[in-house]
Amino acid sequence: MISKLFPRTFDARLTRFLTIPQSFSLTNSGSLSIYRSMSNGVKPFSYPKPSPKIAGQAKDVWSIVNEAAAEAQNSLPFPILNLGQGFFSYNPPDFAIKAAQAALDDVSCNQYSPTRGRISLRKALAAAYEPTYGRKIDWDTEVVVTSGANEGMFSAFTGFLSEGDEVIVFEPFFDQYISNIELPGGKVVYVPLVPPSNDDTRTVSSTEWTVDFDDLESKISPRTKMIVINSPHNPVGKVFSREELERIGKLAVDNNIIVLSDEVYDRLYYSEFTRIATLSPELQKLTLTVGSAGKTFSATGWRVGWLIGDAELIKYVAAAHTRICFCVNSPLQEGTAVALQEAIKPENTFFEDHVESYKRKLKNFNRIWDELGLTYTDPDGGYFVLVNFSKLQIPEDYDFPEEILARGTRDFKMTYWLIREIGLVTIPPTEFYLPEHAHLAEKYLRFAVCKTDDYLEQAVERLRLLKPYIKSD
């Protein structure tokens, strides 16, 4: 402040050398203050208004749970355990780490990469996907590398959506889909997956979460431009069956709809997995397949993703990607390329071992639900578990903050209570639903098992503290 730079006695003389706007005055303390002059109509300062597409968004669940966890840690006698967000508590495989480290010594890897991605990575992706595609993939025209799968999907929506175009999304959905669709001017049309019946009393398979095809077909209109599929699915763990994909694919072909197939968990499935792009030549032309190095190699911080599809589709995704971020970081592209080349070698069992390790993690972790008498959805893919907490009894007079009460759903209250009382972070799945469909999910909580075995064992011990709060049958 000026008053701290000049003696107070110099205030009067100071004004002779300063051109002071009429909206300013010198106070008795010698500091400058801003005031509204009623006589000359000077308006108070206000920031320009942001876009309603951004300003209208509610506080996201990740901020809510992380802030609650940080606050709770101050009063808890043990460290917070985070089974909420899907980040890993361990490193990528050694061959991936070494490849990324080596890339930093390559001059070209410290400079811009081609906007569609490094040639080495696009060639490696083509080679990795060709066995399941059953055809050659043109690495030059049918592959684009993006800053994570999320930016890749945003590029796809930006490349194809005009104002008012509709995109069909199944609920529950990955929350980033919604803003990614709306920012380019698209309109989201929701189709809820139908939950299993009687799952309060029995553990169910993720295959029992089904598509209501009458509802789906009724949502298709002349403005429908795209449909989003997530298989294996977050948070349900559902792997869409071949029959389901064929029915969805027929609707897409009959109505000339682009299929955005989010397959970031495609290396982590425990039952038969089908790529919708492989079902027919017509579907291959309409499908954009999304992949992720973060999910494939347990490296979510690398932010390397990709889209594979017909050259006529990819060129528009690539054009949007160029304007959004131009290119992806070079060292980790190269690290991903070398890691893929290594992982697909016949003698390398990384992908098979990865699946087996998650089968073991899920089996060991899920035993706690049987112990507590809670039911859950047994996933066929991915690393999330939806658990039915309808038997959890929270004290009626428990003090919840306003932002939790404002959500109006039981799962947000349960999430907050678990953080505060046992130091365990989970995610309330109503965040992945429209408010009018929240009743379908508010009895569940989502847990991520992408952690070390020791970390999961600590979580099991914390969950045992819930026994006094579980309502008996």
Distance between the termini: 67 Å
CATH superfamily of the largest domain: Type I PLP-dependent aspartate aminotransferase-like (Major domain)
**How would you write the strand order of the largest sheet?**
4-11-10-9-8-5-6
Treating each run of at least 4 consecutive H or I residues as one helix, how many helices?
Answer: 18
Computed CA radius of gyration, to the nearest angstrom: 26 Å
**Which structural category fits the helices and strands?**
alpha/beta
Assign a percent range to the helix content: 25-40%
Low-confidence stretches: 1-38
Tell me the overall shape. Answer: globular
Q: What is the beta-strand fraction?
A: 5-15%
CATH top level assignment of the largest domain = Alpha Beta
Biggest β-sheet strands, sense, barrel: 7 strands, mixed
Based on the coordinates given, report the CATH architecture of the largest domain: 3-Layer(aba) Sandwich
Q: Provide the residue-averaged pLDDT.
A: 91
Number of strands: 15
Instruction: Fill in the CATH topology of the largest domain.
Output: Aspartate Aminotransferase, domain 2
Overall number of domains: 3
Topology:
Layout: H1 2-5, H2 11-17, E1 24-26, E2 32-34, H3 52-55, H4 61-73, E3 81-82, H5 94-103, H6 119-133, E4 143-146, H7 148-160, E5 166-171, H8 176-182, E6 187-192, E7 204-205, H9 213-218, E8 224-230, H10 242-255, E9 258-262, H11 281-286, E10 287-292, H12 293-296, E11 305-309, H13 311-324, H14 330-343, H15 350-372, E12 375-378, E13 384-388, H16 402-405, H17 410-422, E14 424-425, E15 444-448, H18 453-463
Parallel strand pairs: 3-14, 5-6, 5-8, 7-12, 8-9, 9-10
Antiparallel strand pairs: 1-2, 4-11, 10-11, 12-13, 13-15
Helix pairs in contact: 4-17, 5-14, 6-14, 7-8, 7-13, 15-18
GO molecular function, one term: transaminase activity
Keywords: Aminotransferase, Pyridoxal phosphate, Transferase
Family: Belongs to the class-I pyridoxal-phosphate-dependent aminotransferase family.
